[in-house]
Amino acid sequence: MGHEVWTQGDESSYGILLLEMFTGKRPTSDVFQGTSNLDNYVKAALLEQVVEIVDLVLLHEKQEGDMSANQRLTKASTTIHIKFEESLISILENGIDCSTNVHGERLDIADAMAEMCRIRNKIRADHKIYVVLSM
């Protein structure tokens, strides 16, 4: 209010929104006190515990989709699970890159959108491979 519009503020807000949507946690949550914040929470879990920090609603929907598409545990479903985790990591990294506190290091919003489109297209391609493999 009363300040000049600043595109990097939009980038930061977009990054925080991505992190909120995929973790189900708000940056103002009681979990984040002192020096802890949503960015640090995601960064700490990103590579080894990404599934543990993702909102359970997202995981539940993915598991239901896996069960209805194919009841067997196959190489294809294992591959799709790995691709799912890789996609989550990419999305959360995009959120972190947009919301970093170092203004000069924030991902430009156009680049952030291009990255999300790349991730979406990769998910679509991976899904087509999964459908073919599970037949």
Helices, strands, pairings?
Layout: H1 7-23, H2 38-45, H3 50-53, H4 56-69, H5 75-99, H6 109-133
Helix pairs in contact: 1-5, 5-6
Structure description:
Keywords: Kinase, Receptor, Transferase. GO terms for molecular function: kinase activity. This is LRR receptor-like serine/threonine-protein kinase. One of its GO terms (cellular component) is membrane. The chain is mainly alpha-helical and 135 residues long. It has one domain. It has helices at 7-23, 38-45, 50-53, 56-69, 75-99, 109-133. The longest helix is centred in the middle third of the chain and has 25 residues, at 75-99.
Q: What attributes does this structure have?
A:
135 residues, mainly alpha, 69% helix, globular
Q: How many domains would you count in the coordinates?
A: 1
For the report, how would you describe the main beta sheet?
none
The level of helicity is 55-70%
Mean pLDDT: 78
Beta-strand portion reads under 5%
The dominant shape is globular
Number of strands: 0
Structural class: mainly alpha
Q: Which segments are poorly predicted (pLDDT under 50) over 5 or more consecutive residues? A: none
Q: Figure out the total of helices.
A: 6
- Backbone CA Rg: 17 Å
The end-to-end span amounts to 56 Å
In sequence order, what are the helices and strands, one letter per element? HHHHHH
Gist?
GO terms for molecular function: kinase activity. The chain is built from six helices and no strands.
